[in-house]
Queue: 3 jobs
Job 1
Amino acid sequence: MPLTLMLIWDYDTPTGFAVSYHSRTADPMLEYTCTDRILALLAGHGIVSTFACVGKAAEPGDLPLHNPAQIRQIHAAGHEIASHSHSHELLPALSQAELRQTLRDSKAALEDCLGAPVVGFVPPWNRPFHHPRRLAFSGKDWRAGGGRWRHSVSSLCAALAETGYHWVRVHYRPVWQQLGRKLGRRDLRPLALGQYHGVYTLRLSYCGYDQTLTDWLATLADPGRDTAVVLYAHPHAIEHDNSQHWHHLTRFAQWSSDQRDALQIRFTTPSAWLAGQQQP
Ligand SMILES: [Zn+2]
């Protein structure tokens, strides 16, 4: 049975850099130059992935705020394009109307750019973390909402269903997993698929592609089981000194080529994978 890997890139661009503490001083062209390197590497290894793009970058206009040509190039190379909101908003701080606006605006900008449907969504900073139906409660989301929970994973799905999306990448930790982390327990879990209001939730497994990941993936290969894993990283972070660095990415790409047959590794996109699943 295959080990299915879905690699999702958060394509923040200078619109995202402007609101991110870590990237505020980054070279405004960094996302684009790094994406060129990544596309060449992925093509060389036959890896298909997904780029979750800030809608603003898809609008016509000048670099570095806009780069519709690169988004079309990514799509033409066979990768899925998803929305990463319109202007990299912090969703738990938005009103219901503002949330729907950024979902609509980004989808329209990306679809106009590509001339193709965009049905996936990746929330900036992976938030909301709040998901009471799975016993995940987020103090950070409560504070961002000005002392209340404005959104949860399931209410985000309701807004996504209204605005025409089909899947969303989610990240939440039930209370016992938050406790386990505090006790130093390993926090690696394969994909769990959920569905709220008709929108599929794909739970994130890992950030980056370092040795911790490949050691774990090797233990997941099980001839009796079909296992899927969702990974994420940022194109510009291949220049960061962390699990997303270029040297980890190139090693991971080579490892996956070497292990492809032994571990039955296949790379796919959320839309292609969901199309192949039995609909619950
Ligand atoms: Zn982002």
Job 2
Amino acid sequence: MKQLLVMCLISLASLGFAQDTEQIDISGWVSARPDLLGKKGTPALSYGDEQQRLIDRDIYNNARRNSVWCPTDSLWEQRRIDMGLNRFGKAPCPTEGNCDDPAVRDATDTSAKVVNIYVHLMRNSDGTGGVNIDNARAAYKQMVNDYAGTGLTFNLVGAQWVNDSNYAVIPAYTPFNLNWLNAINGMKQAYAVWPQYVCNIFVSGQTSSPFGVLLGIATFPWDPAALTKTGGLWINNVAMSRGQHTFAHELGHCFGLWHTQHGVSEVASCSACYEFADGSNGDVAGDFCSDTPPTPTNYNCSGPGGSDCQGTPWGPTQPENFMGYGPDSCQTLFTSQQVSRMHCWLADANPLWITQ
Ligand SMILES: [Zn+2]
């Protein structure tokens, strides 16, 4: 039955959705060669515009060191307050659902699952602009490679160009208004497909501002919007390239992962959700994974230095975790508990995204 549904989805996808979209040949995307990724001697990708590529790389590198490159955690905290939602359970640090229970997490079936995704690349109405297609394909393959070993693989239901100048480049990030977020939600409302069955991936540019550039933002599975058109995730064009891990990071949020710094830099010091450096409450605070050491937000491959609110040194932490803010060059890891959380939240909250 599920296979039939997927075939129907693929058939529909091949028809296109509207005159302002254009299907992309994904035959070169799905045959990923993880063995070639990041290896010396890999044939260079062709770039249509070398200067644009260098500009993109510069914006990307600056954004990667910006204070806020992925506001997923903070946006959800604000949305929960706005919606007046009470969180599940009565633990000292409130939880979002059953999968936040470490016993449930650890008992989760992590056998292989295939997740439906659909990629939408935004560009101008006349077909100009948008992400470099070679980069987009390379970023997709990198993401598939990053999930190797998690038991999660992907069914790319389709990919399409969306020719709509309203969303080719979204407004600049600023803490003073939500024009940037309204644009992301606008493109999702207009072009997302089958959100109950597919994780929708949107890719566009963003105007730079003194407040920085966002690289991505995603929707947690417990968010009431998760299975609506405004679920899924958005990635900046500049974060879609070979060797970049923003795609894996944002999908991690969609599958139920917080930032590794969530228990430290993203909560009040020594509060109920504060994750202590001694590891004593790692299962029930912060990111709800005791095998991801607590850390302040850290943009480096080495430990952050310093100590927690009780004076315990942070130690080496885990800058290689995909859910932190470490440089791409050292990000290599989802932990065992993160893998279990992803399988748990997917099955619990987004079961129809799983095709088999
Ligand atoms: Zn994030």
Job 3
Amino acid sequence: MPLPIHCDLPQRTDDLNRLVAQWGFVPVKQLPKEGLMLWLDAERLSLRDAGDKKQGAVSVDFAGGGSRHRRLHGGGRGEAVAKAVGARGQSTPTVLDATAGLGRDAFVLASIGCHVTMLERSPVAAALLQDGLNRAVMDSEIGDWISDRMTLIPGASSDLMSDWSGERPEVVYLDPMYPHRKKSAQVKKEMRLFQQLLGPDQDADALLAPALALATKRVVVKRPDYAPPLADKPSDAQIKTKTHRFDIYFC
Ligand SMILES: C[S@@+](CC[C@H](N)C(=O)[O-])C[C@H]1O[C@@H](n2cnc3c(N)ncnc32)[C@H](O)[C@@H]1O
């Protein structure tokens, strides 16, 4: 079901029309009383639960908030995801992130120098991500490299990877949605809203074979620590964090 989108700012009518035309969202003048909805305000596009104001809004903000903090004070190349894709010294592999979501992992990799192509099949996630990218290119700190290193292609990865005609990526990165076991504080608004919107990616196992056929160096799969390996295929190596592990398959 296409989500309703609300915008009451005349100066953003063109942007609203573009979003409606590109993604098929349904423009609404009145705020819905319940259910998931998109809101376009003066600054950004966000996803909200109209019936649960406490839940807050989800949007993509690469230039500020958690992404900025992580870029300036996180581990950079020391981050587990960077080690998992094999970023080392001056080596920054090209990465195809075939389950881009809100682009947080892709941004970490791009901020250390990787060129990341992001695939995303959910129109809502892709629209939020594109909105975040559009604002990031205008930012004085990160704008000069965002458009060079981060590219979004909307669509289903299994088809896009099987029909790939461009240069093959060195790494394919997969982080499909997996059901959460615990209601931890960490599984906060973003993941809860996303679970509500998308549910688990039941077909995720089917991504491993095309990923292994496409990557030239390795495939990396991010899994919760309690989840079995994707497609039940044992990995060649693993990197573990407190809550996750990165299963690595060498090509
Ligand atoms: C857990 S989220 C990814 C989070 C992301 N790694 C991040 O850092 O923000 C999984 C995303 O993958 C997308 N996805 C799952 N299977 C897909 C497929 N076959 N093709 C394209 N996107 C897919 C889902 O729509 C969802 O947005």
